[in-house]
Amino acid sequence: MAxxxxxxxTLGLCSGAAAAVDEEGLEQxxxxxxxxxxxxGRRQPIRRAPAVAxxxxxxxxxALGATDLDEVLATVPGLHVGRGHIGMTPLYVMRGIYHRLNxxxxxxxxxxxxxxxxxxxxxxxxxxxxxxxxxxIEVIRGPGSALYGADAYAGVVNIITKGAAEHDGVEAGxxxxxxxxxxxxxxxxxxxxxxxxxxxxxxxxxxxxxxVVEADAQTVLDGLFGTHASLAPGPMATGHETLNARIELxxxxxxxxxxxxxxxxxxxxxxxxxxxDPVGASRHDHRIVQLALADQxxxxxxxxxxxxxxxAWHAYSQVHRHAVQILPPGAFGGAFPAGMLGAPNVWERQxxxxxxxxxxxxxxxxxxxxxxxxxxxxPRTQExxxxxxxxxxxxxxxxxxxxxxxxxxxxxxxxxxxIFLLPQxxxxxxxxxxxxxxxxxxxxxxxxxxHDRFSDAGRTSNPRLGLVWHADYxxxxxxxxxxxxxAPAFNEQHSINNPVERGNPAxxxxxxxxLEAVFAWQPEPALQAQLSVFRHRMHDLIRAVPDAGGVxxxxxxxxxxxxRGLEAEVRWEPSRTLRLAAQAAWQRSTDQATGLDPxxxxxxxxxxxxxxxxxxxxxxxxxxxxxxxxxxxxGDGRPPIADYTNVDxxxxxxxxxxxxxxxxxxxxxxxxxxxxxxxxxxxSLPNDLPLPGRAAVLQASVRF
Length: 704
Description:
Radius of gyration: 25 Å
Largest sheet: 22 strands, antiparallel, barrel
Number of helices: 10
CATH class: Mainly Beta
Shape: globular
Strand content: over 45%
Mean pLDDT: 91
Structural class: mainly beta
CATH architecture: Beta Barrel
CATH topology: Maltoporin, Chain A
CATH superfamily: TonB-dependent receptor, beta-barrel domain
């Protein structure tokens, strides 16, 4: 209530205001922000799509004053951008489905998964994805495995980059802000003979917020051993360097894209073992090449057949430039005078191929048949460390110094018997069938099923049904049902010699079933509202379970979880100079074994936003977000983590002198103390994970 009253007061003081074309010309009828492609694999009006979906276009990104992907995703109803303890990496928590690494949300770049085989996530160094080259971001909340297979579990995020038409010339920009943030970019769009060419180059760095952690895991060990080795209170290392390069060549219906996403000198945050680490730094490197053919007629005399082809190569590596300081000097009663150190490195190669055929020869039906093959390889792993792990007996899992090397801080290359993870290889074959059936004038039914067969994790089939009733020009109703799954990551299956968590090759995919209802109402062009309600049930959850008679945990398929909730949003433009938006999301989750809330995820999210067009066409935006109702996990006796309200503002210029734009944005305007939950039982980081305080950024760009 305080949040709503505060923003209404602000409104009282201050009140006084579409791109790509597909084969059906939907742009002219609906506008770019009101169409989506990831719901069925083809562009269609978002109101008719069989999904709970959100689309954010480049124009909307500019109106938000957002410079990073996390800022945009925080505006999606029911999606909370949390933080993990390793490097403070972002967690895209949808509908209360929480995991400390967040492998349940699939993130795509132009349809290619940005997934690391090692962790099943975007990689432990995922951070700071700039938006200058982004044309649109499409998000579906709920299961997507019937189209996208593994990890499209809680939802799917597809980042679509700009082509030549969206760039249309040359633009350069600079950005500087708090925490010694500095960035620059250059982008170009044009033609090279018959080929459309788009290019983008971005480089940046930041020291990070360096928020102070008051106590950590070593603080607990100091209490046990009577030592003073902990570096807490002390700042977290959250700095990093970024390099992003992309190029796209387009000819007729073909697209060739290449991307390089480099995150270097990535700080470890509060530490991999929740003990402060000021020295560890890693390099995370995504390289992607994609060749795509879209909507190609098979032959002149086969007018009802259309071909889609997608081939992608994705190389990912995680290399530690400076060894991770798992525990500081003096740990374990002085057993590690130079600290407990390790540098686990992995290299991955992924080949993905998919072909789909659309058939429209049957009256009122649009069929899609697809098959694909993925070759997912981790050909090399490497580890340097100064410790070994006891592998048997009552002390199994306890680290011990690795001879004289541990005394001087020297690292030793781990042998195959002692390494954290051996090279792994996975092959996945899939096939799917989808039918979009126009039942009647205003009714459509989308039905589909996809079958995936893993070389190492069994097989799974995931159906979907989506019934859409377009009652009239004002009201649309949807009833949706779907299955989804998450495949175990390589660290969950095959991790060995890990002092905390060890793998289990017998793991099965974890699964979810979701039932949703959606109501969209648009009584006039200036007013839109949507309400969605959902229920889901998760089975065979992959969790680290404490080992009986030993130290540490092993991954197991154990337990199930239920969830239910609703998401509501309203957009209203009362005048040409004022736009208002409100969102609210509520969810409840229950662990079936305990009957308790599993913790961590917010039960309630609220967002209010106002945008004004000022004299001279300057744009002012203010938004407030409330994150509330986070419970502790069972067994964590700490009080519930405090709610917080975050207020952001930005001021953007029109096109000045036909070439220039400037923008000033401030996040956490009132410099509130905001925290994300640390892992249960909370002994290591009892005061949770502090988020950045007030942060300002100034941006300027020029077009040539």
